[in-house]
Specification:
The complex is a heterodimer of chains A (512) and B (658). Chain A is mainly α and 512 residues long. Helix content of chain A is 77%, strand content 4%. Chain A contains 20 helices and 2 strands. In chain A, strands 1-2 form a two-stranded antiparallel ribbon. In chain A, a hairpin with a 6-residue loop joins strand 1 and strand 2. In chain A, helix 1 runs antiparallel to helix 2, helix 3 runs antiparallel to helix 18 and helix 13 packs across helix 16. The N and C termini of chain A lie far apart (69 Å). Chain B is 73% helix and 2% strand. In chain B, helix 3 packs antiparallel against helix 4 and helix 15 crosses helix 20. Chain B is globular and about 95 Å long. The relative contact order of chain B is 0.07. Classes of the chains: A mainly alpha (512), B mainly alpha (658). Chains A and B meet through helix 6, helix 11, helix 13, helix 15 and helix 16 of A and strand 2, helix 5, helix 6, helix 24 and helix 25 of B.
């Protein structure tokens, strides 16, 4: 079997194994899930090492016939492949999962079997989204990855889980359906569902059609990111989701949105992207500040981190639609960074929640005295999230803001404000949790982190430092693909400015 | 390339030290699990930390010697390059470089840093976070060394934010008390405001030069500025970078975090908030002097901000009762002098004052720490008095520091401050006003310094003899004081004024670095003072220092009556000065509280009410429609999906063919 199929469907196989194991064998269930994800992680790392970042081509490609659309001769194929736009996302999805599974030891105690099944199914869905190179296959995986979270929040969630679930479901459904329209239109127009071919041809569409199709895709992805003003489902979903659900949601699921914007927005419709770039840059920059202000006002730690995601993903969108080399590179790296730092934040909040059964900021204070190891990890993570140079977040943010500055200084300057406000909400929350006197009796005898909890965070901590010190190998993975995308953008930019130059001439002629 | 890896060990040794001390800290915690009073291996931490800094110091001396052996215009030692961020054609690398300027900073950072490490071994003894303290302190020295050694602005920024982090961690070191943690947070956020400005400056430089390599930028300034649009951008970039300096070096408008930073342990105040970190802004301006010198307006802005900060800081120190607050405002004020010097184009003089200030202010802080230590954590000078009899060594060294700070003739501070004021005076025009502010501040400085000495060491003993038994500090603490005292007294030899007819050692040494900036300035005319004028200025400076030192001492050697009478008769004035011209209060009233309100309004009204309300409204509408449609379909999810799918296909087909 080829490598990509193996990576994609191994979690599904694990899910089957879990299904076949009796529900009473909790240890075995957890072990199966953990081993499966560990193997996938190893495969993911192997893929990363094999991957040639200088090439723009799809690598490890698989292409098999699947079915023919009834009533037409359009062949839908089973096509997988990885390129510079997706490689980091694939590896992130693979590497993050063992941590997620290991974290469930602490907080998933009921219906363990079902939870593991959903988790593994979700991984297949997510990997499929990043690896599919056929549009129908992509859409299939896209939908597959949505369903598990629906159940995770609905069954294992907090008090208002039903409200959160329905909101999340309706939001994403609305986006998915609009995207479906665009998918169908695109397939019937070009009579192919091959993403590579579509990417090569869609640029030739007239601008109006490009804009409409772009809008169809972009709506679904913007909801997923979530981009202002489609973000209100996120805080509810995060707050109600179990820790592991939040980690996957922040770590990977949201990146499906930004990845989609990159692949089916910038890469597929460069002219439309260029046309709408000011709008998206504005939404990204305003989102950075808006999300930060939202976070400042929160009293629930988890909700605070959820709001910070709105802010951080604003950076990703800002950098992406700067449509400069630095912006795009930073944007891709920032997707990984956000997965690491926000994933860690959710894990840490989960750990403290398991001990105190509350997430209200005013219930804490002085935790650093009772849980020094926890304090170390929290401060580390906050610094990574606040983009301290030397840790991962800085590289992404710097490139994004630089790229945005090269394109539109105004939006970069607004984005830079996020550097200040980000520090404000993160440090204030840190202080209220960790520092000051211990005011609550319950906090006086908290058990510090155990070996499992430290161990499950270590891979992400190492990655945060590694990316911070040596970002270039990570950035280089998308070099070939981004060179290709930049060429397209330059062409579109040339066409746009040519059109702009022509316009006054034609009006003059009309006057004559 | 071809650089040496050896140079990297100067910053890396403290980094390794920090890691080792961190491990020692966690090992200590583990030991304490079983026995709450166990010391664990924490006693190793100061040894490791001091050894790391000593190693850096020795390597720095070696580098310094090697540098001095080279021809004046070839004095550059480069390290091997650490490739960092490569994207497209942009290459942001980190490498270290020792040139005359960074060599001076190296000596200050590792030299004073080492003394303060030794001092801390005594001062922090018995603290539960003993090892953690040295981990942070070593991490700070690493960051500071990255800051001064980096050959590119991005590497400098790594150190720049790194020292900010350590400052945050160390100010909030005693976080259990609450307010130190708040002070640390405030410091970090104020610095972040400056850093945001710094970032924008770096973007502009990349836009103009395509690189952040400092020497490349410095050489390219002249050619780039020929184009008026570029010149305009360059001015903005310089101002943005200076914005970063106002945060890090506590200048108006971002200075109010520094007095609060005194919540940290006193050695931290000495090392970070007096001798090294807060001078980073001064270093940056000198390092990039062509960028700042190329537009005279930028220098005028810097000089004006510096002079005003000197005045506001100095006057705010007058009525402080907390000995560390006096020193904190004094530091703000002295940093203002350094920027006044930079604004006058006197780059070498600013560095000169930076060096002497590191000696005498580091000394004064450590002396204050010794007093606080001996007084069982008392910081209120109104509850001291007469301590010279109880702690003679601290007293003598403190006097040396005070004499230098107040600019008494022939001490280090006298020469460095006088040089700055002479340059400002020589500039003429608007700079006369700045010079006037500088002179007034000099008087104020002498006054509050000797008020502090009198209140602390002279007069009646105002402390409770039953509870407080002042004692001299151990040798681990007073020996560093003695070394710094000698340096404070003799440091002036580094930069004797031209009227003495000897070489200004520091100016001469820094010449290769400051020459490009001076060349740009020379285009606007040079400013020379006659010897007679210089003598006159020297004399004026000496007279003012002696006069106001005497005045301050005489007033307060009697006791605290003067403070009480001002508090009684002029409460508004006392309040205004103690509150540092009420600037911080204004920030809270005009920025902090409104921001909280905006955040609340955003979260509750805009987000939950408006945006989310719209969404839920749409959801409600859908439910209502769904209820109606239920009559048409069977209501199962499957048929809904079918209908929706069919609708979507229809829409798509319509779009294709219409």
């Amino acid at each position: 079997m080829d490598q990509l199929t193996l990576i994609t469907f191994l979690p599904l196989l694990g899910a089957l194994l879990v299904l076949l194991t009796p529900a009473s064998q909790e240890k075995a269930l957890r072990a199966i899930a953990l081993v499966t994800t560990l193997v996938v992680a190893v495969l993911g790392v192997r893929l990363y090492l094999q991957f040639d970042g200088t090439s723009a081509a799809l690598q490890c490609a698989v292409d098999k016939p699947w079915f023919v659309l009834p009533g037409s001769a359009i062949a839908i194929r089973y096509k997988l492949g990885v390129d510079g736009l997706s490689i980091l996302m694939v590896v992130l999805t693979a590497v993050l999962m063992p941590t997620v599974i290991l974290s469930t030891w602490g907080h998933i105690h009921k219906r363990v079997k079902e939870f593991m099944v959903w988790m593994l199914v979700m991984q297949t869905g997510m990997l499929g989204v990043f690896l599919a190179t056929d549009l129908v296959l992509f859409y299939f995986f896209w939908e597959v990855s949505l369903i598990p979270l629906y159940f995770m929040v609905g069954i294992w969630g907090g008090e208002r889980r039903l409200y959160a679930t329905i909101k999340f479901f309706l939001y994403t459904l609305a986006g998915s359906l609009v995207m479906l329209v665009a998918v169908i239109a695109l397939i019937y127009h070009f009579r192919t569902a091959d993403i590579e071919a579509l990417c090569a041809q869609a640029g030739s569409l007239e601008l109006t059609k490009q804009l409409w199709l772009f809008a169809g895709f972009a709506l679904a992805f913007s909801i997923k990111v979530p981009l202002l003003p489609f973000h209100t489902w996120l805080a509810d979903a995060h707050t109600e989701a179990p820790t592991s659900g939040s980690v996957v949601l922040a770590g990977v699921l949201l990146k499906m949105g930004t990845y989609g914007l990159l692949r089916f927005g910038v890469d597929m419709f460069p002219a439309a992207s260029l046309e709408l770039a000011p709008l998206f840059m504005a939404l990204g920059a305003v989102g950075i500040v808006y999300g930060a202000f939202l976070a400042m006002a929160q009293t629930d730690v988890k909700r605070l981190v959820a709001c910070s995601s709105v802010s951080h993903l604003g950076y990703v969108v800002l950098g992406m639609f700067a449509l400069t080399r630095a912006g795009l590179s930073g944007s891709i790296l920032q997707m990984v960074n956000h997965g690491i730092s926000t994933g860690l934040l959710f894990l840490l909040i989960g750990m403290i929640y398991e001990r105190r059964h509350t997430r209200a900021l005013d219930q804490f204070g002085g935790i650093a005295s009772t849980m020094p190891i926890f304090a170390f990890f929290l401060v580390f993570t906050v610094l990574s999230s606040a983009a301290l140079p030397g840790l991962n977040g800085f590289v992404g943010e710097y490139l994004i803001l630089l790229g945005a500055f090269q394109a539109k200084p105004l939006w970069a300057i607004i984005g830079v404000l996020g550097v200040i406000f980000g520090a404000v909400y993160l440090l204030v929350a840190t202080r209220r949790v960790l520092f000051g006197p211990v005011t609550h009796e319950e906090n006086k005898h908290l058990e510090d982190l155990n070996v499992r909890e430290i161990g499950l965070m270590l891979p992400m901590v190492v990655l945060a430092v590694w990316i911070g010190f040596q970002p270039t190998p990570f950035l280089d993975q998308s070099r070939g693909s981004l060179d290709r995308v930049m060429k397209k953008i330059e062409l579109a930019r040339g066409a746009q400015s040519a059109a702009l130059e022509v316009r006054p001439l034609t009006t003059e002629e009309v006057v004559r | 390339m071809g650089g040496t890896w050896l140079l990297w060990f100067i910053p890396l040794l403290p980094l390794f030290g920090a890691a080792a001390c961190g491990l020692i800290h966690f090992a200590t915690l583990a030991a304490r699990k079983h026995d709450a009073n166990a010391k664990g291996p924490s006693g190793l931490a100061p040894v490791v930390a001091c050894a790391a800094i000593l190693g850096s110091l020795l390597l720095s001396i070696a580098a310094f010697k090697q540098l001095a052996g080279l021809a004046a215009d070839a004095r550059v030692i480069e390290s091997a390059v650490w490739p960092w961020i490569h994207v497209g054609s942009l290459q942001l690398d980190i490498s270290l470089v020792v040139d005359p300027l960074s060599a001076v900073m190296l000596m200050v950072v590792t030299g004073v840093g080492f003394l303060i490490h030794v001092y801390s071994a005594g001062y922090m003894k018995g603290d539960p976070g003993y090892a953690k303290f040295f981990a942070f302190l070593n991490l700070f020295v690493f960051s500071m060394l990255m800051l001064v050694l980096s050959s590119s602005l991005i590497g400098l920024f790594v150190g720049w934010e790194g020292v900010g982090l350590c400052s945050y961690l160390l100010i909030g070191f005693w976080y259990e008390k609450g307010w130190p943690a708040e002070a640390g947070q405030k410091a970090f956020i104020f610095n972040r405001v400056g850093d945001a400005s710094f970032l924008i400056g770096s973007f502009i430089l990349i836009k103009l030069f395509g690189t952040l390599d400092l020497s490349d930028i410095n050489t390219a300034v002249a050619s780039v500025s020929a184009d008026p649009a570029n010149a305009w951008w360059l001015t903005i970039a310089a101002l943005c970078l200076f914005g970063g300096c106002t945060g890090k070096s506590a200048q108006i408008p971002l200075f109010t975090w520094l007095p609060d930073a005194m919540a940290g342990p006193t050695p931290v105040s000495a090392l970070i908030h007096a001798a090294t970190m807060v001078t980073a802004g001064v270093y940056l301006v000198v390092r990039m002097n062509p960028v700042f010198a190329f537009d005279p307006t930028v220098l005028t802005v810097i000089g004006t901000i510096g002079a005003l900060t000197a005045l506001v800081g100095g006057t705010s120190a007058i009525f402080q009762r907390d000995i560390k607050k006096v020193l904190a405002y004094s530091t703000v004020s002295q940093l203002g002098y350094m920027f006044l010097g930079l604004g006058s184009g006197a780059f070498a003089a600013a560095i000169f004052h930076l060096v002497t200030h590191a000696f005498f202010k580091g000394l004064l802080f450590l002396g204050a720490g010794s007093v606080i230590h001996g007084m069982h954590d008392e910081q209120d000078m109104h509850k001291m008095g007469g301590l010279r009899r109880h702690m003679p060594k601290t007293f003598v060294t403190f006097m040396a520091g005070a004499a230098a700070l107040s600019g008494l003739p022939l001490l280090s501070g006298f020469f460095s401050k006088d040089e700055i004021l002479a340059h400002t005076f020589a500039h003429g025009g608007f700079y006369f006003v700045l010079w006037g502010i500088g002179i007034v501040t000099a008087a104020v400085t002498a006054y509050y310094t000797w008020r502090m000495v009198a209140l602390t060491f002279f007069g009646k003993e105002r402390f409770d003899h039953h509870h407080v038994h002042p004692h001299e500090s151990p040798a681990l603490m007073w020996v560093p004081l003695a070394v710094l005292a000698v340096l404070s007294v003799l440091g002036g030899a580094l930069g004797l004024p031209p009227v003495f007819h000897v070489v200004h050692v520091l100016e001469h040494w820094l010449e290769p670095v400051t020459a490009p900036g001076h060349a740009l300035l020379a285009a606007n005319g040079t400013h020379e003072l006659s010897h007679a004028m210089e003598w006159a200025l020297l004399g004026l400076g000496a007279a003012i220092a002696l006069g106001f030192a005497h005045f301050g001492f005489r007033t307060y050697v009697k006791g605290v009556e003067q403070d009480e009478s001002v508090q009684r008769n002029r409460p508004a004035l006392a309040d205004f000065l103690v509150g540092a011209w009420k600037i911080d209060a204004q920030y809270y009233a005009k920025i902090v509280y409104p921001s909280k309100l905006v955040a609340f309004v955003t979260a509750v009204i805009v987000d939950q009410f408006a945006i989310d309300g719209l969404v839920n409204g749409a959801g409600g509408l859908a439910t209502a429609t769904g209820n109606r449609l239920k009559l048409l379909v069977d209501g199962s999810l499957k048929s809904y999906a079918l209908w929706i799918g069919a609708g979507a296909v229809l829409l798509a087909l319509l779009w294709m063919f219409v």
